[in-house]
Design a protein that fits this description.
Elements (H helix, E strand, L loop, with lengths): L34 E6 L14 H9 L5 E2 L4 E2 H4 L2 E6 L7 H17 L3 E6 L5 H12 L3 E5 L19 H7 L9 E5 L8 H7 L3 E4 H7 L1 H12 L3 E7 L21 H9 L5 E8 L10 H23 L1
Bound molecules: manganese (II) ion (2 copies).
Length: 315
């Protein structure tokens, strides 16, 4: 079996080479892969700033800094996993439903092959075709969403598909198990006092940032783990979960958020959950001085790979 792993950084420097994720081979050979990094360069779902179409490129660029071993999790990712950079799924800029079809069609074979996709967004509207692809293979899923917004609004400008609506659509389509799902980090001004209650009425457990601050991160991690339990779970990480001081390059920033360090703690807390797919979305390189948001997103993807490696090592 071919094993795919990053180029050796003691042989060639990390700033060299074509910018695939972590200097992994760019191939669509699913037979020899355990996990696949996939770009979804789409931003037609954005309601405020635009530019997430360049997110995958920005994240891949900064991912060249990443190394093989995760000391916080005590795991050598590529001792357990063969990982590929699958490239980008095709999208049709300006046309959300055509892009949804194309993104779903691009991701489904990855799930069918038993490979775990790590999707690099893209605005958060891509979560819907991601979940359509995942649920077509795995059935309805638990969701763990880190975000300052629940993205369960009904419509924007009379349109049902935007980056503010994918999780309501996912519930309507039966792609999720809301009773096993949890949304963490909601904060900022909202349109109506009932906005968050709407998500709860759909069955989600919604934990605002204020509640995390009161209860503590460790307790919330336990709450996530109890909620998901042994369900197959999709993990969706919107970088606006993190404070704009650490993640300015995003579409709808909200102040009063978490540090990069705290974001890592949350993701590390998901070890041994049954993760079938994950994403990191809403990186806007044009608003990202010093590429700090892309660096954060690359590191979150690295934590996802670590979780998948832990699963594989344990299984
Ligand atoms: Mn979002
Ligand atoms: Mn958000």
């Amino acid at each position: 079996m071919t094993r795919y792993e990053p180029a050796d950084s003691f042989e060639t420097p990390r700033f060299s080479g074509v910018r695939t994720f972590m200097r992994l081979p760019n191939t669509q050979d699913l037979e020899n892969a355990d996990a696949a990094v996939v770009g979804a360069p789409f931003d037609t779902g954005a309601t405020f700033r635009a530019g997430a179409r360049f997110g995958p490129e920005g994240i891949r660029s900064m991912s060249h800094l990443l190394r093989r071993y995760n000391p916080s999790q005590e795991i050598g990712i590529f001792d357990h996993l063969s990982v590929i950079d699958y490239g980008d799924v095709p999208v049709v800029p300006g046309y959300i439903e055509a892009s949804y079809e194309s993104i779903q069609k691009g991701l489904e074979p990855i799930h069918r092959a038993g490979v775990v996709p790590i999707v690099l967004g893209g605005d958060h509207s891509i979560a819907l075709p991601e979940l359509r692809a995942a649920a077509a293979v795995h059935g309805p899923l638990a969701l763990v969403q880190f975000d300052s917004h629940p993205d369960t609004w009904d419509a924007y400008f009379g349109q049902k598909h935007t980056h503010g609506t994918p999780f309501r659509r996912a519930v309507e389509e039966g792609l999720l198990r809301p009773e096993r799902s949890i949304q963490v980090g909601m904060r900022g001004s909202i349109y109506d006092e009932r906005d968050w209650d709407d998500a709860r009425a759909m069955g989600f457990d919604l934990v605002p940032t204020d509640a995390v601050r009161k209860i503590g991160i460790e307790e919330i991690i336990s709450r996530i783990r109890e909620r998901v339990d042994d369900a197959k779970v999709y993990v969706s990480f919107d970088v606006d979960f993190v404070d704009p001081a650490f993640a300015p390059g995003t579409g709808t920033p909200e102040i009063g958020g978490f540090t990069s360090r705290e974001a890592q703690e949350f993701v590390r807390g998901l070890a041994e959950l049954n993760i079938v797919g994950c994403d990191v979305v809403e990186v806007y390189p044009a608003y990202d001085p010093a590429q700090v948001t892309a660096l954060l997103a690359a590191n979150i993807a690295h934590e996802f790979l670590s979780l998948i490696a832990i699963q594989k090592a344990g299984g």
